[in-house]
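Researcher: Final request for today, and then I'll write up notes for the group meeting. The sequence and the SMILES for NAP follow.
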Amino acid sequence: MSQTDELTMTDTALLTTPGAATGTALLTTPGPATKEARERLSNLAPRWPLEELVRRYAVADRLAPHVRVNMIASLDGAATHDGLSGGLNNADDKQVFDTLRMLSDVVMVGAGTLRAEGYGALRLGDVAVAWRQTHGLAAHPTLAVVSSRLELRADDPMLADAPVRPVVLTHGASPAARREELGTVADVVLCGERAVDPRAMVAALVRRGLRQVLCEGGPHLFGTLVEADAVDELCLTLSPVLEGGGAGRITTGGAPAARRMRLAHVLTADDMLMLRYLR
Ligand SMILES: NC(=O)c1ccc[n+]([C@@H]2O[C@H](COP(=O)([O-])OP(=O)(O)OC[C@H]3O[C@@H](n4cnc5c(N)ncnc54)[C@H](OP(=O)(O)O)[C@@H]3O)[C@@H](O)[C@H]2O)c1
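Model: Predicted protein-NAP complex:
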């Protein structure tokens, strides 16, 4: 039996739901009954046409430096399920996640997220590469890793196999030997004397022509950016689950701050919300 044959009536109905094609219906599209059915459908057809997501997430001026943070949280504010953000997401969130990568010049992550999530090389799919090249962008965004201790291995695939030479953002008091080793596979950039200065970090990326910054976390890095008032946009996926337990929030550390944001849009995918907030 083929994958299509296995679909239930609800699944088949969704395949023809006009909501996938129009912005208005996009906000109210009902979903199929089971998680398994949703996952099978997502494999068959992305929920949103690419142009729709590009229209919703494009910035007005790509030459203006812009720091966009993309995070996911449970309904009760947990940033992880079983220690990983991947436990909260699904294929619809992944479609937005991939689109945001496609639109970025640089993907910035904290070293803790790399260590926890085991990122491979940052390499986009063929459609995204074609879209980027048509729009005058490099085939792949640059990976930028933020670290103080530099507990990163130069032979880690995310660095060693990167299609674009990655950047390691650190400070002048980080271990010199580690800087030297990582310098064999990445550009090591100092952004502060004894600690990473978030604004210096963004300025360093902008000097390299990397103005559209996508920060994929994690919570420590996001907390630092909030403290420095360096966040222009938050794309937050709200995953329809009550996690309970002691999982942390999507920001940790940094001094308290109350940065007011305004809602740019809400996309729904079954019970999941994709919220876009701008400063
Ligand atoms: N819900 C979500 O959307 C989401 C997104 C990403 C990650 N996560 C989850 O978050 C967890 C990891 O949390 P985390 O807070 O440890 O992640 P993180 O912010 O990625 O990592 C913290 C580490 O990154 C480096 N770092 C971050 N900010 C820095 C700064 N301002 N200056 C210098 N170094 C800085 C430091 O590395 P060194 O120790 O090397 O100095 C620090 O120990 C994982 O479980 C991951 O799955 C969730």
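Model: The first strand starts at residue 66 and ends at 74. Residues 110 and 221 are 6 Å apart (CA to CA).
Researcher: Thanks, that's everything.
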